[in-house]
Amino acid sequence: SQKIEQNSEALNIQEGKTATLTCNYTNYSPAYLQWYRQDPGRGPVFLLLIRENEKEKRKERLKVTFDTTLKQSLFHITASQPADSATYLCALHTGGFKTIFGAGTRLFVKA
Amino acid sequence: GAVVSQHPSRVICKSGTSVKIECRSLDFQATTMFWYRQFPKQSLMLMATSNEGSKATYEQGVEKDKFLINHASLTLSTLTVTSAHPEDSSFYICSAGQGNMNTEAFFGQGTRLTVV
């Protein structure tokens, strides 16, 4: 069956360090993968999109990698700040605008 | 980015009543909108795809008579939870895409439904 897996346990890091979140998927061949941020009680907010022919994408302090052989994406936040604390969702497109989400990883950045 | 507005943000209703949630694309036209449901600490689960001018496409296990979807215009989709029960209490979120390309989806703020 098709699965998207993200670390279910929360990630706790110290301010200034790099946070690395993992997204693994099985039985999908997505053309692209996305990362979203979700704060409690709010809808997800789009962060980055990476296509299957791209190995890496950057946006300010964010970096995403996409390995279609390993079926894995890594999401990095460098120089992390307490304001980066949130849940980060990995999402795959299965056609059109239809998006399938992972359960998300909760990130806590301590000052 | 594009703006999707969802209303209301919170609603409490009695068992057996119906609740309507609106999803509007404010600055673009959306021929397709999506409705998700999210339980605490769980992923967003796609409920249905709302198509302007035609019937919605429901995911397996989602009762279409329970969750009525209407997409009457290019900027508005509504989800009506009929004969609500406490187990329908959840966070409901809509999203819309822009244009014909596979790009990011824009999400509404979500609606917290509590059925008492």
Write up what this structure looks like.
The complex is a heterodimer of chains A (111) and B (116). In chain A, 0% of the residues lie in helices and 59% in strands. With 111 residues, chain A is an all-beta fold. In chain A, the strands form two sheets. In chain A, strands 2, 4, 5, 9, 10 and 11 form a six-stranded mixed beta sheet that branches. A five-stranded antiparallel beta sheet of chain A has the order 1-3-8-7-6, with no helix packed on it. Chain A is globular and about 40 Å long. The termini of chain A are far apart. Chain B is mainly beta and 116 residues long. In chain B, 0% of the residues lie in helices and 51% in strands. Chain B has no helices and eleven strands. Chain B has strands at residues 4-7, 10-13, 19-25, 32-38, 44-51, 57-58, 67-73, 76-81, 90-96, 106-107, 111-115. In chain B, strands 2, 4, 5, 6, 9, 10 and 11 form a seven-stranded mixed beta sheet that branches. Chain B has a four-stranded antiparallel beta sheet with strand order 1-3-8-7, with no helix packed on it. In chain B, a hairpin with a 5-residue loop joins strand 5 and strand 6. Chain B starts with a strand and ends with a strand. The mean pLDDT of chain B is 90. The A-B interface holds A 4, 31-32, 34, 36, 41-46, 49, 89, 93, 96-104 and B 1, 4, 6, 32, 34, 36, 41-44, 46, 49, 91, 93, 95-97, 102-110, 112.
Return Rg of chain B in Å.
Answer: 13 Å
Beta-strand residue fraction of chain B: over 45%
Q: Structural class of the secondary structure composition of chain A?
A: mainly beta
Tertiary shape of chain B:
globular
> In whole angstroms, how far apart are the ends of chain A?
41 Å
Total number of helices of chain A:
0
The main pleated sheet of chain B reads as: 7 strands, mixed
String of helices and strands of chain A: EEEEEEEEEEE
Major beta-sheet overview of chain A: 6 strands, mixed
The beta-strand count of chain A equals 11
Shape of chain A: globular
Low-pLDDT segments, ≥5 res of chain B: none
User: Helix/strand-derived class of chain B?
Assistant: mainly beta
Oligomer: heterodimer
- Which two protein chains have the largest interface (Cβ within 8 Å of the partner's Cβ), and how many residues from each? A-B, 23 and 27 residues
Radius of gyration of chain A: 13 Å
* Range of helix content of chain A: under 10%
